[in-house]
Amino acid sequence: MNPEIDLRVGSLSKIETWITSPTQSDDGWTEIKSFLFLRLTTSDGVEGWGEAFTLPCREIAIEKIIRNLVNAVAKDKDITPHLFRDKAAKISDKHRGIDFSAATSAIEMALWDIGGKISKKPLANLLSENPKPSIPVYATNWSNKETGTEAIGKRAVKLIEQNFGGVKIYPLQNRSPEEGAKFVSYVRNLIGSETPLMLDLASPDNAKLAYELAPLVAPFNPYWYEEPVDGENTRTLADIRSKTGLRIVTGEKQCGLPHFEETLSANAADILNPDIAAVGGLLDMTQISEWSLKKNVKVSPHCWNSMSIAAAAMLHFCTSIKNAEKAEIFPEYLSHVMKFCDPGFKIDRGHAVIGEEPGLGVSMDTSLLKSLCSDYNEEKLRK
């Protein structure tokens, strides 16, 4: 954290929220889920954007939590990300849950964006005195439409040609461990032996699948082995890490600090991937990074989000910490958000290069955004 920055943003006067409708990617490769955006406006007219992680059937509920929390701090004259986190913790009474944490993540993100605009500094410079100008990125190669080995293999090659610094695939998606290993071998042969190939098991209900798959894919040099079991199953994660020798990634479904402290204490992970828009906020992310650094553990934030507001926050955060791993990009989501925003970063030779605009550096066209939404709310805040 840059100690020279005053993060007081003043008082809040207005809150707006947008929930986009789910749709198909332009190329038909996958479904694009709903996104939940937030814009806060201060009494001085400074605007800040945030984004909450969400899934079907809970978007409206998270939006309501956001508005309730913002109203709870609306009377504060000099709100800061730190003061908001403290107040949200008291409100939750330590009963957070990922939906509550998604709401606090979005609000804190917006406060950081405002702070950057007031101080005329990019978010990365608020988080660090010497941030890096870019961060390595990889492409998540996921589709709920195309699951065939050849189709995903061809897509992997295309993504590498598009300058991504690695590709992630899902070997257990409609496959047995044996079939998954053949799939990994096929993709590895297509992209070459040097290209980082990440494997995401997506938390199979049966941990035996992760144990069976590991020795079958080890010869293909996977860059990491993500979510071999649910992140709450710390003991099994530690055992898989010990017995397989693969780099274990976990944390995307978890929120709050105690879980990550326990995971680190159990030596259950090589890389933590809390979701940038669900963990609780950038302050929690920073604490997790600091704890991880002491254990020689990397941080690669999960970002199953819009590739605009949340992705910008993720990239600024990654450039500000010492132990960042490759950051996650959903290529189809990135193409989609370009219809209504400039995300404030560009992909170049395997890296995301962030701009020098203040705050998150994202420019949103709210008219175009609203045309893609199923729900929009605006509320003037009472003093």
UniProtKB/TrEMBL annotation:
Keywords: Lyase
SUPFAM superfamilies, per database record: Enolase C-terminal domain-like (SSF51604), Enolase N-terminal domain-like (SSF54826)
Gene3D superfamilies attached to this UniProt entry: Enolase-like C-terminal domain, Enolase-like, N-terminal domain
Any one Gene Ontology molecular-function term assigned to this protein's record: lyase activity
InterPro entries in the record: DgoD-like, Enolase-like_C_sf, Enolase-like_N, Enolase_C-like, Mandelate_racemase_C, Mandelate_racemase_N_dom
Positions of the Mandelate racemase/muconate lactonizing enzyme C-terminal domain: 149-247
Coiled-coil parts of chain: none
Pfam families: MR_MLE_C, MR_MLE_N
PANTHER family (UniProt xref): D-GALACTONATE DEHYDRATASE, D-GALACTONATE DEHYDRATASE-RELATED
Stated name of the protein: Mandelate racemase/muconate lactonizing enzyme C-terminal domain-containing protein
Taxonomic source organism: marine metagenome
